[in-house]
Amino acid sequence: MRRAQGAMSRDAKERDVAVNRRAYHDYFIDEKYEAGVMLTGTEVKSVRNGRANLRDGFVRIDNSEAWLENVHISPYAQGNLMNHEPMRPRKLLLHRKEISSLIGKVKQKGYTLIPLRLYFSRNHAKVEVGLARGKRQYDKREAIAEREAKREIARAVRRG
After folding, report:
1. What predicted TM-score, i.e. pTM, was given to this entire model?
2. Once rounded to an integer, what is the mean pLDDT over residues 96-107?
3. Is 143 within a domain?
């Protein structure tokens, strides 16, 4: 079956490079935002090779600018002296209204901004940023118990 010429699947438009699975375990994600990332040439090549780690990353808002901190992008293997620093802060490209609303939300107690996934959308590097509240230990246990209960129900349904 042929697709219409202008139609593209999600896979063709967006390609995940790195996903922060730990974020969904440690935080409740209330809102999600899409932001562009300013990368150097060797960083783009390294990210295209899947050499990025979002696990300990967070977003800092400074002077109405958003910065992606503590995200590790490995140096490009074929890079020379012009290779990038792996843990440098990277500027996020958000609209001014989005940044000003995020400033107000982050000032509330218990909220933080964390990167959820890094992907390419139409050849532009993007980060999905989540406005998150930290989970307590009992919340994590509750989520695990709920997930196991769903698994047991699915097994019982399959058995008949």
Report:
1. 0.75
2. 90
3. no
